[in-house]
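Sanity check record (used in CI):
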Amino acid sequence: MIDVLVIGGGNAALCAALMAREAGASVMLIEASPREWRGGNSQHTRNLRCMHEAPQDVLVEAYPEEEFWQDLLKVTGGNTNENLARLVIRESSTCRSWMRHHGVHFQPPLSGALHVARTNAFFMGGGKALVNAYYRSAEKLGVVIRYNSPVEDIEVQDGRFVAAVIPERQINGQLYPAERIEAKSCVLAAGGFESNREWLREAWGNNERGEYPSDNFLIRGTRFNKGTLLKCMINLGADCIGDPTQAHMVAIDARSPLYDGGICTRIDCVSLGVVVNKDGKRFYDEGEDFWPKRYAIWGRLIAQQPRQIGYSIIDSKAIGHFMPPVFPGNKANSLEELADQLDLPRETFLRTLDNFNQGCCAGRFDHTLLDDCVTEGVTPAKTHWARPIDTPPFYGYALRPGVTFTYLSLKTDATAAIRFSNQPSENLFVAGEMMAGNVLGQGYTAGVGMSIGTAFGRIAGHNAALASMGKQPKSAA
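Expected output for FAD-dependent tricarballylate dehydrogenase TcuA:
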């Protein structure tokens, strides 16, 4: 019997597998996807949000614990477990040397429109390079890796993990029999339910016309995160936390693929213009805060609009102040022409833009600061970077909600143990998206998902190794 079974194949699962192996346990990692799609949502990531008290290698200036905490507190609206959040924050300050030891490389500090040179460490080659490095290290250390192995059931007895069940399946025309894999301990890190369309329908419900808003959602990440193990554990009585409609949900290019569009589908000009819905009306403050602190609320905002679509509108003054999208948007020499191209009601759209333009107050525009360019007498107000949209050519980008991962999670503690009736399991642990809702009740700030996955992946893996040896799990705090 193996010591530690890790279920999942992304950042959190790999961190758990590596930590368990380093602690002396025999480890098997089983991934639902084929090898070419391994890595879950982590393959689409770019960076890790890191606490640091002074300049460190690829991080400039300082980003102390309290500032990180306040940033997280603000975006979650207080819907977070402070003890676990601060654990993640402190762990983020010490993980980079360990990551480098396992082959992860970081690129020099970034500056400019992303506003994250101080707070986030970027992976050289992005998330795909990170997961590939971890897989190489895991193989070198002797971790057994299985692909095309979706777990459909978990056997638990009195709160203890017993076995994982893989169903009969066909791979490249070959039939593989069902399997039952026993282990002394287990880490669940198999992601949320964002690619389970039926569960999304159930969570979001339907409208008065019988339509399901979630049918218009696009999935930025992996198609393999069906939430099978999350639902299994909930059915087994594991304690859970979070709202099933809360998620990392970004406004992305409406032309994006249904799955695996990743980072390149983002439209980053929202804060520099206005966003209107299908009726040609604004519905939220586009300049509320820096884009890395607000980009992940816009998917949910658009999900609440008619037909779940929005349109980011800018003029030529905004060009050069944001990361350009992969594909060009609509371009027009007049707002009338742009309205027609986007199939928006011309009269309402022009009135919206005219009211906004009239409400813009003179200020000193600076997209790198929370500047004093604001609106007056306009609802909703725009509180930063408000400039009249009056300089052709004009640009419009159609936006859809892009779900990265869901926040409904298994409840845990500082040991990463799964809990049943508030009692921690002795040998069953959780990491990554399956527990992120303990820290992220709502909202998001760039890079914190990787911080959570790295922190709790390492904690879960280490404690799973201890549990397999009959030792007591430890808190990282």
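The mean pLDDT is 95. If this sentence no longer matches the regenerated tokens, the check is flagged for review.
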